[in-house]
Structures are given as C-alpha cells and as structure tokens.
C-alpha cells in the first residue's frame, strides 16, 4: 500500500490538488449557515470553496468520511476526497447538468462529480461524442478532462448511504445549488436533469435562483422538456434524462443513442 493510502484521513484545506478551499474558508454546520454562506459568497470560486467544506448534515459527514478511511479494495492505494463535491466545468456554460449526488467510490473518492465511476463512463463518453467534452473518459480530477460549454453540479453534494439522501438533507443542500444556478444563469440556456430525483429537486432551486417556472410542474421522463424563463427574461429549456446508472445501462433502459440524442438536443438549445 502506498504512503498516501497509509496517511491518516485529513480535514479540508490541507493541500489536495486544485482544492478550492483554504484554511480560512468558512464552514457551514447547519441549514441556516448553508443558506447564509451560499448567499454571501462573493464569487463562484468562493461558493465552490464553501460547498467543499460543508458539515451541515451529520449523517452525510459521518458516511463520507467513513468511506474515505475504509475505502474499496480496488482503490486501497488511493487517497479519498471524502468531502462535499463542488460543481465544476465551464464557468460560463450554455448547459448545466444536474445529478443526484456523488458516488461513494466515485466523486467521494476523486473530488469531482461523476469522475471515477460507471455512470461517468457513460456520461463523459456521450458528452465527448456530441462535442461537449474534450475526451471520452475521466478517472481522476487531474486527468485533463474539460467540459466544453457545459457545467456539472449535484442536488446533494455529499455521497449518501445507499445513494439515498433524505428530504431534509436535500433541502439543507439546496442553497448551494440555487446559488450556483444563479451564478451561471447569464449564460445557461439548457438545464439537463439526470434522473427523477434531480428533476424534482432542481425546481425549488431554480425558483430560489429567480427563474419563472411553468405550472403545473411537468412530469419527469427521458426527453421531457419544460420551458423556463431566466431572471433576465431569457428562455431556458429544462430537459429530463434517465440517469446513466449501472442499473439503467445494464438493462437497456438507457442506451448510447438515447444519451447522444438528448445531449445533441441540449447543445442545439444552448447554441440557438
């Protein structure tokens, strides 16, 4: 086992490559502090730093740090991020892609949403094929992957047990997402929701970010579309996409053609 793997698990601000946080980055310890720190972040970079050190949900903090210490056997020689995973990608995106939460041995290990897990294998390959990423694979946060005109975020920033955050955890985390949506709203023309959980969770975040939303709320489905209006009056389209989870890809509920068609549509909306 490597020296890095033998090293004790450390708390935020200790020199992880490209870590947005610093020792003085303010830390949220409850829902009220999440709301306050999200609203007061002076820049997108500061927002990401504050996201990455959040400790507001005791159950999620305990789980993510437990996984970071115990690790999966195949990753035993690798250090784990073990923290909330901030949004990443183009700072002025035409497309915002919203997922559920980091995977325990994916984003929770690599520090980047969808990086290092099977869902990401499918997702990044599709983004590359349609021109939204510069390479088809992503295994770690410093592997050279760039999103082209796109950005990724999650409705819950910590890996949850059984991949199931509670309603309270979802609601506590919402201000991070709402503030990030607001920070990139000037350029976004399409929001893609990966899975039904993200579809349901993004609506109140969009509302909080100042978007005008249709009523009643459209049902989730692959290829479902909803017309929104950004705070500056610009039309924006919300797209539903089945999550590229192993369960969906193994059963054929999600295929490469389905993903490529949807992201081609997203790119068309973002550039029209």
From TrEMBL:
One Gene Ontology biological process: base-excision repair
Region (Disordered): 1-24
Keyword Hydrolase: yes
Keywords for the protein's UniProt record, in alphabetical order: 4Fe-4S, DNA damage, DNA repair, Hydrolase, Iron, Iron-sulfur, Metal-binding
GO molecular function, a single term: DNA-deoxyinosine glycosylase activity
Domain of life the protein comes from: Bacteria
Keyword Amino-acid biosynthesis recorded: no
Record protein name field: Type-5 uracil-DNA glycosylase
